[in-house]
Amino acid sequence: MNIVMLVFQAGLRDLTRNRWIAAYMLGFLLIAEGLFWFGGTGPQVALSLLNVVLLVVPLVALIFGTIHVYASREFVELLLAQPVPRRQLFIGQFLGLALPLSGAFAVGAGIPFAWHAGAGTGGGALLALFTAGVALSVCFAAVATWIALSTDDRLKGVGLALGVWLATTVVYDGLVLGASAAFSEYSLERPLLALMAGNPVDLARVLVLTQLDVSALMGYTGALFERTFGTGIGTTVAVATLLAWCAAPLALAARRFQRRDF
Amino acid sequence: MIDATNLRKRFGALEVLHDVSVGIRTGAVTALVGPNGSGKTTLIKIVLGLARADAGVFSVNGQPADEAGAYRRHIGYMPQAARFPENLRVRDVLELVRALRPDAPRDEELISAFRLALEMDKLVGTLSGGTRQKVNAAIAFLFRPSLLILDEPTAGLDPIASGILKDKIRQLRGEGRSVLITSHILTELEELADDVAFLCDGHLRFSGSVAALLERTGERRLEAAIAALMRSERARTADPLPESVGPLGWLPVEVEPS
Amino acid sequence: MTGRSVAIAIVASLAAYAAPLAAADLTVGAGGAYRTITSAVAAARDGDRIIINAGTWREATIVITAPNVTVEGRGWPVLDGQGARGVLIVAADDVTVRGLVVTNTGVSTLDDRAGIRVRDARRCLIEHNRVRDNLFGIYLQRSADCVVRDNDISAHGLSQTTSGNGIHLWYSPGARVENNHISGQRDGIYFEFSTGGVTTGNVSEHSQRYGLHFMFSDSCHYERNVFRENTSGVAVMYSHGVVISHNRFEHSWGAAAYGLLLKEILGGEIRGNTFTGNSTGLFIEGSSHLAIADNDFLQNGWAAKVLASAEDDHFTGNRFAGNAFDVSTNSRTANSTFDGNWWDAYRGYDLNRDGVGDVPFHPVRLFALIVEEHPASLVLLRSPMVGILDAAERVFPVLTPDALVDHHPLMRPPR
């Protein structure tokens, strides 16, 4: 069997038995089911869940991912001493981290929606929410892998991961807000949309909002948002950019893995 | 078995290997010794392809080292302290490494000698350090490698397991295979080693048979001979070894930049 | 006596008065004495009934000048304007038009062509007609006390500039507009200088502009209508004494789209309506002394935008749920009051268990003010950073208008 698949399967088997991953999945399940329990309609639950996804998915992917890659160091060295190419080992190893992470989110949050048969949530909205959650899992798992492969000091690595989380979830948007206030005399729609594409967390948020919270967005941007994200092409571009946000840190991590000394 | 020429490795400002050229004989056990930070682990990692030399070339079994790592088909490696993913069963780990080398010949003798059949369904995270090290050793010997690289192999093993492992090493040598071994226990090396390679501050200071080393230093025991090498090295660099430090004094826990 | 019973009484008494004149039936088409509608109309006298049989009738604009005439279609006769002219004009009092398919006036920029025009005529009754693809559907000018009911009016493929209104009233007081279905016109229902009207049970949707548009029309009532997916929503302007109750305003999206826009309305009642999924549910500008009670604001972008120019408007018993912003305003001063509403964003407690929260609720979020000032910052909607900002502002309110407070927020939804 293919080396990528073998290493991936081992990682998958390890992490599906990991209690933190189980807790993570259970957490999403309880939150989503709890929101339904307290009388939320499907779209309301999806919107509340979006806030959790934007904060928790990057945090868990970064912190858990960094620690996991550090903890796998010795095993990776053992595998590297086998007659296998590094690239294949890396891909298998990364999939073994990213798939359990995104799977735990998708299954945990997905079961309540399946149970309530969507509860009035549009198919597009559900697809956007789960695409966003999975893409953020993969993107930040890649960032975490890159950090752990670049920094031998584990404490520093985890600190860096936390820094990335703060920067992407809070600081970046603060700067955007500051910029939109500082340059409010200019036409800011297009630059701001570009800025949204510059941060995967924002991109994921906007992607979901165009499917779920159109009322407010249409009020302001109207045509621009419609043109940019509402159309099939716009959505495709947004999803493609999100994928690029997964690919870029992954490529950096792969390069690091390929070149570094263990 | 291994032919290394002018291997050079630098970590930042620290030059870890200076033009090391060393040959490891086929069918012999070579002890790789030297103080902390002498470059032993770096040399092993370069041979395994875990680290890359800045300069120099080496071949294993006449096959030059390549990016894809095909030459590693000949190598069995036992790292100093193996850590496996905690939630894998022993069986999963063994199956994974077997599947990675599907065409290699098998030698499952250590698995039965260490009675690992009883541990097969346990999660690695629940194993004792000694059992983990047995699994580690079993993996290194699993594919009848023509070159075995053992980094502190008996650390953490009980005397019985340690004895089994040493017998296994002797058996392989008898079959004409090569073994490269590092250990802090010089008496253990003395039992096993045919050759000695001595590294100090990244320089290869001695490479030859144990007999030649004893003759050169005028000592009768390997431990004393190594200590003599150490002293002369310190004297040469005007950094004499303090009286209180015995032959083993320079061998606490291994910490090297990786 | 209500407007409806007055109208019924008038129609009944007129019918009784007309009967002794030995009214005749003039039948057009298959088996009838008349080959054209025009000839039957020319022959019609006070109180006659013109019966039009099935078929397609392409004639010059038909003008009814005899009073108290009934024009009645059998088997949905089609009156076709051939894209060139208005189809039917009522120019006499007490005329009834029913059962017709009126279609294809064509587009003109010179005249306001209408499928059915009522001109300087009182007490008309336009009912059960199918009004298709006309510039204007039913057009009442200077015609008092008319009833327009149960008509199905639609237009397709026209833009705002090449489309007229579905039901258009101009200087036509005392009208009753009931149970019509209007779709795809410029404005679904249009009132100008038409006071005292009652509009109930209509569905107005997919309008190019407003589902309902009225100006300078005092003392009108709007009840139980549905306005949905109209490009700009509903606009009610420059009037006083307006009652808008139990209507549904749904899915009006856009920068200038409002579930209900109130501009310069003096005194009135907005009660029991549902605003769902609009960019802005209720927009109030320069309007005062409004009672806004018992409405549901659900899943709107902005539930209510109340500009500082609105004074003494009182919100009570309303339910706010699932809106991106509950209340927004353009000033730190607040001239309207909120009291005893239910807010899904309220996180207070009720120690004495009287159903009223012990902590006041500030419905204007800091982010709503920021967006009002810097519209582009809306791209940060539902960002975690914005959540932190709002939470901080809730703890230390320094920027949001402190006067805009619900001191008695309800603990349970009122409905």
How would you describe this protein?
The complex is a heterotrimer of chains A (262), B (258) and C (415). With 262 residues, chain A is mainly alpha-helical. Chain A has one domain (3-259). In chain A, 85% of the residues lie in helices and 0% in strands. Chain B is of the alpha/beta class and 258 residues long. Chain B has 8 helices and 10 strands. In chain B, 43% of the residues are buried. Chain B has a 6-stranded mixed β-sheet, sandwiched between helices. Chain B has a single domain (2-236), classed as 3-Layer(aba) Sandwich (Rossmann fold), CATH 3.40.50.300. Chain C has one domain: Pectate Lyase C-like (3 Solenoid). In chain C, 10% of the residues lie in helices and 37% in strands. In chain C, α2 links the parallel β1 and β2 (49-52). The longest helix of chain C has 16 residues, at 3-18. The model of chain C has no long low-confidence stretch (mean pLDDT 89). Chains A and C meet through α3, α7, α8, α9 and α10 of A and α3 and α4 of C.
User: Largest sheet of chain C, described in full?
Assistant: 24 strands, parallel
Mean pLDDT of chain B: 83
Overall 3D form of chain C: elongated
CATH class of chain C: Mainly Beta
Task: Draw up the topology in text.
The complex is a heterotrimer of chains A (262), B (258) and C (415).
Chain A (H helix, E strand, L loop, with lengths): L2 H14 L2 H19 L4 H30 L1 H8 L5 H30 L7 H28 L3 H29 L6 H9 L2 H13 L1 H7 L2 H8 L1 H28 L3
Chain B lengths: L1 E10 L2 E11 L4 E5 L6 H9 L6 E6 L2 E2 L10 E4 L11 H11 L8 H5 L15 H13 L5 E5 L7 H16 L3 E5 L3 H7 L2 E6 L2 E7 H8 L4 H15 L22
Parallel strand pairs in B: 3-8, 3-9, 6-7, 7-8
Antiparallel strand pairs in B: 1-2, 1-4, 4-5, 9-10
Helix pairs in contact in B: 7-8
Chain C lengths: L2 H16 L6 E4 L8 H7 L5 E4 L3 E2 L4 E3 L5 E4 L4 E3 L7 E3 L5 E3 L2 E3 L10 E6 L5 E3 L2 E3 L3 E6 L5 E3 L2 E3 L12 E4 L5 E3 L2 E3 L5 E4 L5 E3 L2 E3 L4 E6 L5 E3 L2 E3 L4 E13 L2 E3 L7 E14 L2 E3 L3 E6 L2 E6 L2 E3 L3 E5 L7 E3 L2 E3 L3 E4 L8 E3 L2 E2 L22 H8 L10 H12 L20
